[in-house]
């Protein structure tokens, strides 16, 4: 590829008249990025460009997972192992506390717990560091910011898929295979992925500015863990269970959990989940578009 | 390989330009409670209460401009410039004069949406030795990442890898994590990756001047072939002889402002006279 090095002076156009004077508007070709574009459309453009770079995001996400577990022989299967131990322990204790048959309760808690712990909760907490983790890259390379959001989503998705092994094994052992209904969880999981990107853009931007938000998010999630039917079942509440619909996490969890347990999720759950997602996406688009041009200074 | 693989944002030959019109850039510096949402809300709440209760004498004195607790540092002050295709521009000035900041503005990292900044053409920047490299990954993996960033497909990345491998001559080190590299080796890798493609606008910070003598020679050759293919080159450096050799125009920055802008010879003379260190390099 190497061309013989010719002295650059020879090829250079030596003409430069009054360099600091801006040429009249007629001479300048139309700018590539219109100056009058709104922040919103610029943010949207950022998201679209990042989607075009999905290969980069996937590579980055995978490498993140690999690096995190590079020192161990088990690798990400450590996640599977710790989840299995936790599910076993909590299943044993709570089936005693709630006077439930382990055979019925263990499949429930196994899928509930991983959906909450390794799904929603991890996803939201990890989204806080979307931009602060990539400080060096953001400061030195021109790259759509949304790539970082996709990267975090992929990383969480990969780590999540390692833990799904646990409930699947439990279902097989307990003879509770949900059958074809399980496929209904797929559109719900797709919705989760979209929400994860939205969370990354929203919390990622806000956390880049205010560094005390991750602990606040952590404590809020802890509260939601108890008020959302994760370790307990909605039917245990009896008629008051309808109040649970006020908690959007309940519906978000339900649309994925129900198919795994062999039931079709209710339309109300899907409705609330879709509504919540729409609000979340709009909110994140708004926040991201407002903070995008300042992110390089914040991180 | 030197043929551009990626055509994203490429504009017709010879039409690229950089136009910056009266740009000022303030760095917000967050210190104390400015990073904390709780403290900021408390502060706001407090000031609302005190304003309501006490009578004020005279006007309001704003001790901390901008958002509460943040201090603004002005890095660029009313900078206007226009660079046309065919120009090779060098930025000079002492440390902290705003050279690197200006370069980052041109790269679209700072103020990407500013209406008074118009960057037209495909931009590539060599701003940081580690630019986007992951320290834990091997050199080879970093090459792959870089290729993915440029939107390359897998066969194109293979090609890129071979090209960089033959240039950087890192041999077995290419399969070791980048954090084990010496600075010189990092430069070889970073430089190798950055110069495999010919952008229309090339922005370089001064780091690429490092490396041993043997490498310098090869680097210059390689750079020459890239530079000759670009429309616009903007470099910052303290090595005046390098600037004299490469640039047709110098912009002398001082305290965030353009102090002098003109043909290399004129600016160089004035600069040397002011620093009074003859032929410092």
TrEMBL record, chain A:
GO annotation, biological process: lipopolysaccharide transport; polysaccharide transport
Region feature Disordered, mapped onto this chain: 1-34
Topological type in the membrane: Multi-pass membrane protein
GO cellular component, one term: plasma membrane
Biased composition (Polar residues): 1-14
Signal peptide positions on this chain: none
Subcellular location: Cell membrane
Domain (ABC-2 type transporter transmembrane) ranges: 59-258
Transmembrane segments: 75-94, 153-174, 180-203, 215-232, 268-288
Keywords recorded for this protein, A-Z: Cell membrane, Membrane, Polysaccharide transport, Sugar transport, Transmembrane, Transmembrane helix, Transport
Family classification: Belongs to the ABC-2 integral membrane protein family.
Protein name per UniProt: Sugar ABC transporter permease
Protein species of origin: Acetobacter indonesiensis
Organism phylogeny: Bacteria, Pseudomonadati, Pseudomonadota, Alphaproteobacteria, Acetobacterales
Gene this chain is encoded by: rfbD_2
From TrEMBL, chain B:
Keyword ATP-binding tagged: yes
One Pfam match: ABC_tran
Protein's UniProt keywords contain Endoplasmic reticulum: no
Coiled-coil annotated residue ranges, if any: none
InterPro entries: AAA+_ATPase, ABC_transporter-like_ATP-bd, ABC_transpr_TagH-like, Bact_Polysacc_Export_ATP-bd, P-loop_NTPase
Cellular component terms (Gene Ontology): membrane
Domain of life per record: Bacteria
Keywords for the protein's UniProt record, in alphabetical order: ATP-binding, Nucleotide-binding, Transport
Occurrences of domain ABC transporter (ranges): 61-280
Gene3D superfamilies found in the cross-reference section: P-loop containing nucleotide triphosphate hydrolases (3.40.50.300)
An example Gene Ontology molecular-function term: ATP binding
PANTHER family assigned to the protein according to its UniProt record, in alphabetical order: TEICHOIC ACIDS EXPORT ATP-BINDING PROTEIN TAGH (PTHR46743)
Family: Belongs to the ABC transporter superfamily.
Annotated protein name in UniProt: ABC transporter O-antigene exporter ATP-binding protein
Species this protein is from: Acetobacter indonesiensis
Organismal lineage: Bacteria, Pseudomonadati, Pseudomonadota, Alphaproteobacteria, Acetobacterales
């Amino acid at each position: 590829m190497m061309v013989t090095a010719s002295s650059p002076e020879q090829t250079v156009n030596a003409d430069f008249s009054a360099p600091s004077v801006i040429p009249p508007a007629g001479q300048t070709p139309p700018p590539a990025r219109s100056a009058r574009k709104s922040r919103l459309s610029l943010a949207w453009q950022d998201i679209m460009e990042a989607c075009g770079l999905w290969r980069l995001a996937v590579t980055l996400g995978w490498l993140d997972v690999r690096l995190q577990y590079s020192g161990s022989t088990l690798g990400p299967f450590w996640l599977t192992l710790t989840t299995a131990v936790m599910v076993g322990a909590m299943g044993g204790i709570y089936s005693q506390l709630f006077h439930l048959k382990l055979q019925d309760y263990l499949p429930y808690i196994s899928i509930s717990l991983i959906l909450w712990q390794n799904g929603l909760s991890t996803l939201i907490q990890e989204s806080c560091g979307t931009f602060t983790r990539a400080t060096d890259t953001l400061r030195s390379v021109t790259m759509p910011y949304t790539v970082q959001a996709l990267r975090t989503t992929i990383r969480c998705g990969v780590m999540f898929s390692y833990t799904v092994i646990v409930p699947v094994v439990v279902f097989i052992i307990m003879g509770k295979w949900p059958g074809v209904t399980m496929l209904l969880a797929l559109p719900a999981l797709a919705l989760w992925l979209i929400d994860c990107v939205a969370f990354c853009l929203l919390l990622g931007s806000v956390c880049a500015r205010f560094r005390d938000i991750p602990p606040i998010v952590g404590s809020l999630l802890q509260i939601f863990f108890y008020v959302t039917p994760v370790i307990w079942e909605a039917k245990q509440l009896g008629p008051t269970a309808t109040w649970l619909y006020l908690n959007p996490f309940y519906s978000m969890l339900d649309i994925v959990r129900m198919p795994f347990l062999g039931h079709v999720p209710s339309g109300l759950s899907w409705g609330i989940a879709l509504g919540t997602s729409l609000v979340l996406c709009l909110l994140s688009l708004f926040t991201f578009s407002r903070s995008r041009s300042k992110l390089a200074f914040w991180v | 390989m030197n043929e551009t693989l990626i055509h994203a944002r490429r504009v017709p030959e010879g039409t690229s330009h950089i136009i910056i019109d009266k740009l000022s850039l303030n760095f917000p510096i967050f210190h104390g409670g400015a990073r904390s949402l709780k403290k900021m809300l408390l502060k706001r709440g407090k000031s609302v209460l005190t304003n309501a209760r006490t009578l004020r004498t005279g006007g309001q004195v704003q001790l901390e401009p901008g958002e509460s607790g943040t201090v603004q540092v002005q890095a660029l002050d009313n900078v206007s410039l226009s660079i046309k295709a065919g120009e090779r521009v060098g930025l000079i000035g002492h440390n902290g004069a705003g050279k690197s900041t200006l370069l980052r503005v041109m790269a679209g990292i700072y103020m990407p949406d500013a209406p008074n900044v118009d960057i037209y053409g495909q931009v590539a920047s060599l701003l940081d030795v580690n630019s986007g490299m992951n320290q834990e990954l091997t050199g080879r993996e970093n090459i792959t990442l870089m290729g993915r960033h440029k939107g390359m497909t897998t066969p194109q990345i293979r090609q890129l890898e071979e090209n960089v491998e033959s240039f950087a001559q890192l041999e077995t080190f290419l399969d070791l994590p980048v954090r084990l590299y010496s600075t010189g080796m990092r430069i070889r890798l970073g430089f190798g990756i950055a110069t495999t493609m010919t952008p229309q606008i090339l922005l370089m910070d001064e780091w690429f001047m490092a490396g041993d003598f043997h490498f310098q020679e090869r680097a210059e050759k390689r750079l020459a072939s890239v530079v000759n293919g670009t429309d616009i080159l903007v470099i910052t450096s303290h090595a005046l002889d390098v600037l004299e050799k490469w640039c047709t125009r110098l912009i002398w920055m001082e305290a965030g402002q353009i102090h002098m802008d003109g043909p290399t010879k004129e600016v160089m003379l004035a600069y040397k006279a002011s620093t009074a260190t003859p032929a410092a390099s």
